[in-house]
Specification:
By secondary structure, this protein is mostly helical. The protein is built from 4 helices and no strands. The N and C termini lie far apart (89 Å).
């Protein structure tokens, strides 16, 4: 399986790096312009750098490794109890009946 960038792909990555270096020599026109340009260059570089992975998937189609099952599995989540509100007697007092009669 191929896992490395080809020479042409390496050249493209280097050109993208050079584009960033040359861009930095330009005068700034907008506040976020440089970061926007950098993000787009990073996106383009990511596409190029993923090419070996795509090739290896195409070469090894149908030859997926077996899935390893880890003993124990997921733990069940403990649920919080619902809060019980204090009940107020019909008389509107929160005192216990023993304390009211005293």
């Amino acid at each position: 399986m191929t896992a490395d960038l080809t020479i042409s792909e390496k050249v493209v990555c280097r050109l993208l790096e050079a584009a960033w270096s040359h861009y930095l020599t330009l005068p700034a026109e907008r506040r976020d312009e440089a970061m926007e340009f950098r993000r787009k260059l990073d996106d383009a570089a990511a596409v190029v750098k993923m090419r070996p992975a795509h090739r290896s998937v195409q070469e090894g189609a149908g030859e997926l490794p077996p899935i390893e099952i880890i003993a124990g599995g997921a733990r069940p989540q403990k649920r919080k109890r619902s809060a019980t509100a204090a009940t107020v007697p019909s008389g509107g007092s929160t005192k216990s009946p023993e304390r009211i009669s005293a």
